[in-house]
Amino acid sequence: MCCIFDLDGVLVDTAKYHYSAWKRLAKELGFEFSEQHNERLKGVSRMASLDILLEVGGITGLPEEEKQTLAAKKNAWYVEYISRMTPAEILPGVVDFLQHLKAGGVKTAVGSASRNAPLILERVGIAHFFDAVIDGNSITKAKPDPEVFLRAAQALGVPPDCCIVFEDADAGVEAARRAGMKCIRVNH
Ligand code: B16
Ligand code: MG
């Protein structure tokens, strides 16, 4: 068996930083973005998250170029926040569990929608635990498409039914199901 971990909400709580950055963008655009709205963005790709945010604000028909500019602006704020992350922000139990898997020779991978996954793993100091990292930079279809987890299994050199996925978001649980993998949902 191999283990594939989602990042945001499973290994670290970066959702609060995504929320701060999206809220800041909404404020600039003239509307409020609540924590409840933010729940809809968990596990969802950056551009799909922007579409949800614009829908909440009742903003329609923006040209693609402008949407890219808004997403880049949000990401710059987000990167500013995560650049200050420390190992203290690793979620409880994660390091013990990763050490336990490593000692038992169980291969592990990260399967995240985030393009910032390498920076986050490096900041909190857990990058060395993983045999493979598949993230938003190396996939073409976002969760709930199974691509990210199938690519992770491929990188680990095992068939999908030999993988257990740890996920916190609906989109990710659905992606694991479509990949034909077992999935353990983590809620904090
Ligand atoms: P970025 P995960 C996801 O990470 C987040 O849950 C989601 O809120 C975010 O929009 C997505 O990554 C893309 O992140 O803008 O950094 O590329 O849960 O799949 O680890
Ligand atoms: Mg997640």
Task: Write up what this structure looks like.
With 188 residues, the protein is α/β, with parallel strands linked by helices. It folds into two domains: 111 residues, HAD superfamily/HAD-like (Rossmann fold, 3-Layer(aba) Sandwich); 68 residues, DNA polymerase, domain 1 (Orthogonal Bundle), CATH 1.10.150. Helices cover 47% and strands 11% of the residues. It has eight helices and five strands; from the N terminus they run βαααααβαβαβαβ. The protein has a five-stranded parallel sheet, with helices on both faces. Helix 1 packs across helix 4. The site of magnesium ion (MG) has 9 residues, from loops.
List keywords for this structure.
single chain, 188 residues, alpha/beta, Rossmann fold, DNA polymerase, domain 1, 2 domains, 8 helices, binds 1,6-di-O-phosphono-beta-D-glucopyranose, binds magnesium ion
Summary, kept brief:
The chain has two domains: 2-13 and 87-185, HAD superfamily/HAD-like (Rossmann fold, 3-Layer(aba) Sandwich), CATH 3.40.50.1000; 15-82, DNA polymerase, domain 1, CATH 1.10.150. It is built from eight helices and five strands; from the N terminus they run E-H-H-H-H-H-E-H-E-H-E-H-E. It has helices at residues 15-29, 35-39, 46-56, 64-82, 94-103, 117-124, 147-156, 170-179, and strands at 2-5, 108-111, 132-134, 163-167, 182-185.
Mean pLDDT: 96
CATH level 4 superfamily of the largest domain: HAD superfamily/HAD-like
Q: What overall geometry do the principal axes of the alpha carbons give?
A: globular
* Helix-strand sequence: EHHHHHEHEHEHE
Please identify the structural class as seen in this structure. Answer: alpha/beta
Count of helical regions? 8
